[in-house]
Amino acid sequence: MKAILTKYLPATNHRPSRITAFDGNGHRVTISYDSNLDHHEEPHRKAALALCKKMDWPGVLVGGGTKDGWAFCFLEASPEAMAMRAALVACVDRMAELQERTNYLLAWPRVQASDALAASDPSRKP
Prior knowledge:
The protein contains two helices and five strands. The protein is an alpha+beta fold. Strands 3-2-1-5-4 form a five-stranded antiparallel sheet, with helices on one face.
């Protein structure tokens, strides 16, 4: 099981505050600290998720605070659960693509109709 640790890095003369996420194998990501996030865990979770994205690690993270920062690990997921997640992500992506096409197709007849009206009667504005 992979563990991810995060740590707050205070601002210096040359860099703003930031959060670094790292694992025991030397993989590391550092992101800017977003003070606008509501909960103190959120910037650390965001850094851990950035490391997961960089390393292409799928899964659900759970975490908790330590004296030095935060520690996150993955919930165990069955192969069936991971396959269902992948299918759901593909379905959501396909729905977004279809919605984009539908919006285009719904707008297309109105554009064509207004162009036809303007061409048939120049005094008429679309």
